């Protein structure tokens, strides 16, 4: 839900926390995603007999127009986070995966709104929920690794958006530990190495990705960019050494 219909990047409101009008909270609980509603609230469900001077007069009847643009149920997540680690580990994996999926959805929404720090926190929280699970069986381990892979890819991309290539590389490598041939992970590592000016490593990752997807325009374009940057770097080094040796000969 959005406070301002023009501003779609407003952080979501949390029912029972951000919504302070009793009538509005009751109304929101009756709505579905995408629905537009009008609510007419009597004073006891709005601002009461006192109103809210100077904007809301005493005993005012309030008309609200509301549209639910998006909705995520955080109740299960809140309950899970409130548990001790021992209690969390008693829950079935299916419940834990539902919590992780909700956290990832929150992260995706924040990422789409360019709130990258918030997105990173949600993705990291989701990955920690899985990583902290005690002694899973082999079958659970495979399920956990399958869910961790896209989380690490999301974290790597988010860290790139935050201009933190070292951390982007860290999560890209975590993804490769799960799937060494994953083209997205190889691409993310290539991006991170490029930002770190480690051109040979960037080429290695991108060539491996290109072998899996030879016609992928993003991979091919980034490979060309790495090659140009690498050549420019070598030319700069050559010029620097040339000047250094010329100076030594002059002495």
Describe this structure in words.
- With 251 residues, this protein is mainly alpha-helical.
- The chain folds into two domains: 1-71, Chitinase A, domain 3; 75-230, Alpha Horseshoe (Serine Threonine Protein Phosphatase 5, Tetratricopeptide repeat).
- The chain has ten helices and two strands; from the N terminus they run H-E-E-H-H-H-H-H-H-H-H-H.
- A two-stranded antiparallel ribbon has the order 1-2.
- Helix 4 packs antiparallel against helix 5 (116-131), helix 4 packs parallel to helix 6 and helix 7 runs antiparallel to helix 8.
- It is elongated and about 90 Å long.
- It is an enzyme of class 5 (isomerase).
- Keywords: Isomerase, Repeat, Rotamase, TPR repeat.
- Pfam families: FKBP_C, TPR_19.
- Residues 1-72 form the PPIase FKBP-type domain.
- Belongs to the FKBP6 family.
Q: What are the defining features of this structure?
A:
single chain; 251 residues; mainly alpha; Chitinase A, domain 3; Serine Threonine Protein Phosphatase 5, Tetratricopeptide repeat; two-stranded antiparallel ribbon; 10 helices; repeat
Summed up:
The protein has ten helices and two strands; from the N terminus they run H-E-E-H-H-H-H-H-H-H-H-H. The chain is mainly alpha-helical and 251 residues long.
């Amino acid at each position: 839900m959005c406070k301002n219909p023009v501003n779609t990047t407003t952080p979501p409101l949390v029912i029972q926390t951000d919504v302070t009008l009793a009538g509005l909270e009751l109304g929101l609980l009756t709505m579905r995603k995408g629905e537009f509603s009008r609510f007419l609230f009597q004073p006891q469900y709005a601002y009461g007999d006192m109103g809210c001077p100077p904007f809301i007069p005493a005993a005012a009847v309030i008309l609200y127009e509301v549209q639910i643009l998006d909705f995520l149920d955080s109740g299960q997540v809140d309950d899970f986070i409130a548990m001790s680690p021992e209690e969390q580990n008693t829950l079935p994996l299916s419940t834990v995966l539902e919590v992780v999926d909700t956290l990832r959805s929150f992260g995706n929404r924040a990422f789409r709104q360019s709130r990258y720090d918030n997105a990173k926190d949600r993705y990291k929280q989701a990955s920690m929920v899985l990583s902290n699970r005690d002694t899973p069986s082999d079958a659970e381990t495979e399920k956990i690794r399958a869910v961790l892979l896209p989380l690490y890819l999301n974290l790597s991309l988010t860290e790139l958006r935050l201009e933190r290539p070292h951390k982007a590389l860290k999560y890209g490598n975590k993804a490769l530990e799960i799937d060494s041939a994953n083209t997205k992970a190889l691409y993310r590592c290539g991006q991170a190495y490029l930002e770190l000016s480690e051109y040979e490593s960037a080429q290695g990752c991108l060539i491996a990705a290109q072998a899996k997807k030879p016609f992928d325009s993003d991979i091919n374009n980034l490979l060309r960019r790495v090659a140009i940057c690498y050549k420019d770097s070598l030319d700069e080094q050559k010029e620097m050494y040339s000047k250094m040796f010329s100076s030594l000969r002059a002495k």
